[in-house]
Design a protein that fits this description.
With about 100 residues, the protein is mostly helical. About 50% of the residues lie in helices and about 0% in strands. It is globular.
C-alpha cells in the first residue's frame, strides 16, 4: 500500500503541539541530531536545544509534558461514548464534619 499521502501529517505537522512532539520524537526515538530536527521542523536551533533541555529535565523529574491541553479536548466535536450510560464522572472527595 502506498502511504506517501499520509507521510506529510507526521513530517510537516500542522499544529504547534504535534510539531513539538514530532520534533522531540525525531531526536529521542529516530536519533536525529538536534540541529537536523530543528531544521526539519522549522525551529531555531538554539530555541530547539532549550526545548530538548526542558523536556529532558521534565522527564528526569518524572513529569513529561502533555502534548495537548484540557482546552484542546473542549474544542473537539463530541464523540458518542461506547458506554450507553456515558463516561463515569470522577467523584469528589467527601468532607466529614
Amino acid at each position: 500500500m502506498d502511504d506517501t499521502f499520509c507521510q506529510p501529517f507526521f513530517q510537516q505537522p500542522g499544529c504547534p503541539a504535534q510539531r513539538q512532539y514530532e520534533a522531540l520524537r525525531a531526536v529521542f526515538i529516530d536519533r536525529l541530531t538536534q540541529k537536523d530536527a530543528a531544521l526539519r521542523f522549522g525551529y531555531d536551533y538554539d530555541a530547539f536545544r532549550q526545548l530538548v533541555h526542558q523536556f529532558r529535565q521534565a522527564c528526569v523529574a518524572g513529569n513529561p509534558p502533555p502534548f495537548s491541553s484540557p482546552t484542546d479536548a473542549d474544542d473537539r466535536p463530541h464523540q458518542p461514548s461506547s458506554n450507553p450510560l456515558g463516561p463515569t464522572p470522577p467523584t469528589a472527595p467527601m468532607h466529614v464534619s
